Amino acid sequence: MEKVREIVREGRRVGKEDPRRVVHAFKVGLALALVSSFYYYQPLYDNFGVNAMWAVMTVVVVFEFSVGATLGKGINRAVATLVAGGLGIGAHHLASLSGTTVEPILLAIFVFVQAALSTFVRFFPRVKARYDYGVLIFILTFALISVSGFREDEILDLAHKRLSTVIMGGVSCVLISIFVCPVWAGQDLHSLLASNFDTLAHFLQEFGDEYFEATEDGDIKEVEKRRRNLERYKSVLNSKSNEEALANFAKWEPRHGQFRFRHPWKQYLAVGALLRQCAYRIDALNSNINSDMQIPMDIKKKLEEPLRRMGSESGKSMKEVSISLKKMTKPSSFDIHVVNSQSACKTLSTLLKSGILNDVEPLQMISLMTTVSLLIDIVNLTEKISESVHELASAAKFKNKTKPSKSDSGSIVRAMPNKSHDDDDDDDHHVVTILGDVDTSNNVDQSHGEISVDSCHHVAIKIDDDDSIHEKHEDGDHIHVHTSRVSCEHTNASDLLDSGVKKN
Amino acid sequence: MEKVREIVREGRRVGKEDPRRVVHAFKVGLALALVSSFYYYQPLYDNFGVNAMWAVMTVVVVFEFSVGATLGKGINRAVATLVAGGLGIGAHHLASLSGTTVEPILLAIFVFVQAALSTFVRFFPRVKARYDYGVLIFILTFALISVSGFREDEILDLAHKRLSTVIMGGVSCVLISIFVCPVWAGQDLHSLLASNFDTLAHFLQEFGDEYFEATEDGDIKEVEKRRRNLERYKSVLNSKSNEEALANFAKWEPRHGQFRFRHPWKQYLAVGALLRQCAYRIDALNSNINSDMQIPMDIKKKLEEPLRRMGSESGKSMKEVSISLKKMTKPSSFDIHVVNSQSACKTLSTLLKSGILNDVEPLQMISLMTTVSLLIDIVNLTEKISESVHELASAAKFKNKTKPSKSDSGSIVRAMPNKSHDDDDDDDHHVVTILGDVDTSNNVDQSHGEISVDSCHHVAIKIDDDDSIHEKHEDGDHIHVHTSRVSCEHTNASDLLDSGVKKN
User: Looking at the record, which segments are called Disordered (chains A, B) (predicted)?
Assistant: First the structure.
């Protein structure tokens, strides 16, 4: 009894987590009841006989949660049945020519070779990712048809019936999955990315308060809720396999909503990988927040202004991406926040150079510098993410924002006053200078070679390069170039100050 | 033609990566040829008729790469066929009682309810992990049997034949997968863990040379080979899903080699999670190594001795674990290396307190302190890993090492002189003090509450606690207690020095 209650509770939890699961269960029930009543229905049964069961089987095996997965499996199954059926008939014909004693031996050899080859092919990474199921069905159908032991005309009839029932089952699945409350893997991937941006943004925006404000031991429930909310980012850490599966399914899906057939799903994975990099840093930062309570607040406060701003500005830029992803518009004020966070980074470096921390104990220094270095990493990653999102936006042909809607302009308005409030004058000039760089610097390699030793960005950027090359080899070069083009590390902070003054 | 050559090249690569794949392909071919010759063999065919195809189907679908996966699927399929067959016959009987007009409607309702419920159950995480395939077959068989449209005695016959052919197919798979070059998932998991320890150990042991020795731009190929060898650790970063799948399969496997039926596979996952934590740190460290070339060598050299020792000693402890895992013996000199690395950590903290870095530029400080903090993290993680490995060793009943074999004693001998060579006198006393702590401290919570602010370990340990709670909730508490019990952070470094002097 206790056991039953537990199962019911578990069921409620699973259903609440994603109500579409309940709908999916009903859809499968519907499809199966439909197909088996075909089976039961006498005229159809007279026509297809036992072969009607292949329709039932197809529905059970092919019907998956998302449209993409269902379509992928259905197409795999239909094509594999067709090809293997043809080859199977051929093999059967060949064997039957050879006389009754050799025939079974020849058939066994055919089956053996076919099964061994196909099984081996299933280990190919590219086959495994998209055609694994098809190869499985290929092995199955080939073996069943070639060895069936029927006369040839019977076999042709068999293959024909089997193919038509498989197609019947497959089509029912696909139709029901597309037209009854469809679950699009592409849409899911898109939303997942947007919500990942959102949770990271939330953490970064709250970071300053969490790090610089003494925690009162007030309402424990409140504190716990706050922490749980902050630590939502942890789901991003392990999102890789989920994203990859969704992207694989999405490739099978037809045009739906605002997604074209050849939507750049691969670019979603690229952005997702960078975002995960960022989440690793945030995870480390989060553990530091707790332990850094040990550092006296007055020491932390010395770096409060730039650190707070680095967090909040990169958070804002991510929030902006999250919103514009949801609306599928190009992010507009996004770059401003990225540049703001970089200028905060420069303020920090000036501050550190001024020797403000000379009297800090070395052991406290370790912890404080870890936080600083993580935040620098995050700022630099934000910039890379910015570039990657721009690529995504243009590849996916996101609309330009014509008239900012309410919630959107809210975010810009919130950003703007902050900017003019937080930034001092030469930070504004940094903005100008850096944006200038983007347009004019053609000497990418050269500038990369001239990186000055004491730029605080450089260290972090190197870290990122390595990491992202590890995470996504293909785009490594591109990112590399980009990094040295846009970010501020190829001139040191004092140079920027100079140029700011000159423009004045 | 180019395409074909490419495919052949890919095939060669896939086969070379794990030659057992080729063997597996042959095994599948063998099983299928065997079962389909049953099918083709007239007396058997006369007995089972078309139902013989269920044997073929079972082989194709059930035969997996490892014994555990095959057994799991086979058992799932047999049990699900049996249960669903019984229920299906019951449903069919019930429906047939109700008269010809109601019968199809009732059957459709049965199928619908059954399919919807079972499909929903497949979303339960525990069901998904181990019984997903069984539920699928349950849905399938129930639908096929209940709707079959035959008379009842025919159905009983059908169910019986289907079950026996499924069992025939399943048993062939299981026998071939166990007796022809078996691939044990448990053995694979075990080896994977050992090799993960090995790659991390390699990195840590090489860390000192990599960080403190200026790279000559000599033989590029040599340098690249060295880097590739160092960066083997990257495979550990994404080992989670692989480990989990293997552990799931291993649970199905019978006693084999030195593994009992209820071998503590779960503990492998716990150790693996900690090891992955360590790999994340190493990844960050690796990126730092490259960027830290910017820090003048003379500054780095100031911290060389303790940093080098922290790396090499934790590397040695991991190497030791790797070796003893391979032999399935309890690691013996393992703890000594852990303690050595901790004492190096203390030397470092003393060094930092002495103000040796007071004249270092703040921006170089960031990078240097990041390296320091990562190494402290790694040392603390090594200690946790040590505890976790000890748990594994006793749960898995590893043998005590009676007579160290050659390669093993090599590792101990290498360790010992290092110890007496590197450690100064009061470090040796640290060892005594810390080991004493393990035995005597019952005041866990109290000591945890008293952590002093200036202990360098504390910060890092906090980080780990949080992370490991995130990675493995169940053991979180345990680790927490452990950490505050064994490690040296609940007394600060000067306390330890005092106690060392007292014992003198």
Answer: 398-428
All residues of chain A having their beta carbon less than 8 Å from the beta carbon of residue B366 are 352, 369, 372-373, 376, 456, 459
Beta strand residue intervals within B395-464, DSSP E = none
User: Helices marked H in B49-66 — which ranges?
Assistant: 53-62
CA distance B275 to B318: 10
User: Which chain B residue lies closest to A8 (C-alpha atoms)?
Assistant: B121
What ipTM describes this predicted complex?
0.74
Decide if A211 contacts A303 (C-beta within 8 A).
no
Inspect the interface and report whether the beta carbons of A39 and B149 lie closer than 8 Å: yes
CA distance A33 to chain B (A): 5
What value, to the nearest 5°, has the Cα angle with vertex B111 and ends B107 and B117? 145
What are the backbone dihedrals phi and psi of residue A329, each rounded to the nearest 5 degrees, phi first? -115, 160
- Helices A265-291/A362-395 angle, 10° precision: 160
**How many Å apart are CA A503 and CA A38, to the nearest integer?**
80
Q: For residues A145 and A54, what is the distance between their CA atoms, to the nearest angstrom? A: 14
> A with B: how many residue pairs have Cβ under 8 Å apart?
265
Say whether B214 sits in a helix, a strand or coil.
coil
Q: CB within 8 A of A423, min separation 6: which ones?
A: A340, A343
Residue B453 corresponds to which tokens in the numbers above? 């602010």
Alpha carbon A438 to chain centroid, angstroms: 28
CB-side neighbour CA atoms (13 Å) of A92: 24
In this model, does residue B194 exceed pLDDT 90?
yes
Distance CA B414, CA A74 (A): 60
CA distance B107 to A40: 9
What pTM did the predictor assign? 0.74
Distance CA A20, CA A404 (A): 32
**Is the pLDDT at A459 greater than 70, yes or no?**
no
Query: Which region among A436-450, B196-210, B353-367 has the lowest average model confidence (pLDDT)?
Result: A436-450
Contacts of A470 in chain B (CB under 8 A): 231, 234, 283
Residue B314: alpha-carbon gap to chain centroid: 20
- In angstroms, the separation between the Cα of residue A237 and the nearest Cα of chain B is 10
- The residues, ordered by sequence, that sit 6+ positions from A171 with a Cβ below 8 Å of its Cβ are A74
Q: Which residues in A lie closer than 8 A to residue B492 (C-beta atoms)?
A: none
Show the tokens assigned to A260. Answer: 């074209």
Work out the mean pLDDT of chain A and round it to a whole number: 75
Q: What is the pLDDT of residues A393-452, one digit of tens each?
A: 888 888 876 544 444 433 333 333 333 333 333 333 333 222 223 333 333 333 333 333
The answer to whether residues A83 and A172 touch, using CB atoms and an 8 Å cutoff, is no
Contact state of A363 with B373 under an 8 Å Cβ cutoff: no
Looking at the complex, report in whole angstroms how far the Cα of residue A19 sits from the nearest Cα belonging to chain B.
11
Q: Where are the alpha helices (DSSP H) in B292-360?
A: 297-302, 304-327, 334-353
* Cross-chain residue pair B14–A124, CB shorter than 8 Å: yes
Concatenated DSSP letters of A101-124: THHHHHHHHHHHHHHHHHHHHTTS
Spatial separation of the C-alpha atoms in residues B326 and B306, rounded to whole Å: 30
Which of the given ranges, A422-436, A489-503, B302-316, B358-372, has the highest pLDDT on average?
B302-316
Q: Which of B296, B362, B344, B298 is nearest to A365 (CA)?
A: B362
Phi, psi of A238 (to 5 degrees): -110, 30
CA A24 from chain centre, in angstroms, equals 23
pLDDT tens digit sequence for B379-409: 888 888 888 988 888 888 888 765 444 444 3
Grade residue A478 by pLDDT with cuts at 50, 70 and 90: very low
